[in-house]
Amino acid sequence: MFAIDEVLKRTMQSMGEDVYTKYLRHSILFYWKDIVGETNAKHIKPLRIEYKRLFVYIADSSWKPTLYEYKSTFIQKINDFAKKEIIDDILLGNPNERPKEDENVICAPPQVDISKELQKITLTDDELDEINKSCAQIESSSLKNIVLKTSINRMKLEKYKRQNKWHECEKCGALCPQEQRTCDVCTQLEDETFRKTITQILRDVPYATYAEVKKEIERSMPQMIDDFLPHTVESIRTSLIQQTANSLDTKDQNQVNLLVMLYKRIPLDKLNDKIINNTLYELRYNLPMKGRITFER
């Protein structure tokens, strides 16, 4: 295991499964080179992790076979690093989506060394008494010491946040930085709901335009409209196309129609055999039976 700060790690664990999972996701992106190797990391760059799927960017198409060949190995390495199943698949992201490191803003660790900052924080006697009382009923001395250390770090972290003018999340009341409207957990949940909403819109109306999707988001999630960009819709559309293509049953006309409408952005009444056949040909390398389908061009 790589040298991830144990104090920060235990603190994140103590703050709940959602926070800890998000911490692991960011750690995977930051330590990508160490996980998959310098050569692979140079050509296969991580974008984001969503719903246990890692989306990557590959500028040189000659490296795509490497991704497919070693996909299972990469997944195993990532989950071994996290010591839990963080991902179960790796997919290519939107070709127009560039990795953040190209802008010199890759998901680097915070500028502040949290462990050092926590060492500067002192707790009052009353605060320590409160922690000791909360652990008084624990009989196992080893377990009690672990709980005491975690509780102390957690209280120090809360004091550190308040000293740095963190405010209460408008949804759950947890402390969050001044520049954020909600805490990381609520932001993540809201973002997941946002993306699920867009995904459902595209499933219901696969040929929907950006303007049509935006209109529906304005109605259902007005608080997220500032985050609604063409890139967001295209990224989700690309992911949906890949998922549909990867599990496509060519004998299921509904699945085929959905895939073609998503890819070509045309309604059902505009489909014909030629459009369907050409679309399947263009997407042939993503289809599960790619080597056994005969196309008539």
Structure commentary:
The protein is mainly alpha-helical and 297 residues long. The protein folds into three domains: 6-103, DnaA, N-terminal domain (GMP Synthetase, Chain A, domain 3), CATH 3.30.300; 114-164, no CATH class; 184-292. 55% of the residues lie in helices and 6% in strands. The protein is built from 13 helices and five strands. The protein has helices at residues 6-14, 17-30, 32-36, 38-43, 64-82, 114-120, 125-134, 141-163, 184-204, 210-220, 230-246, 253-264, 273-282; strands at residues 45-50, 53-57, 89-92, 167-168, 175-176. It has a three-stranded mixed beta sheet with strand order 1-2-3. Strand 1 (45-50) and strand 2 form a beta hairpin. The protein is elongated and about 80 Å long.
Question: How are the SSEs placed, and which strands pair?
Answer:
Elements: H1 6-14, H2 17-30, H3 32-36, H4 38-43, E1 45-50, E2 53-57, H5 64-82, E3 89-92, H6 114-120, H7 125-134, H8 141-163, E4 167-168, E5 175-176, H9 184-204, H10 210-220, H11 230-246, H12 253-264, H13 273-282
Q: Which tags fit this structure?
A:
297 residues, GMP Synthetase, Chain A, domain 3, 3-stranded mixed sheet, two-stranded antiparallel ribbon, 13 helices, 6% strand
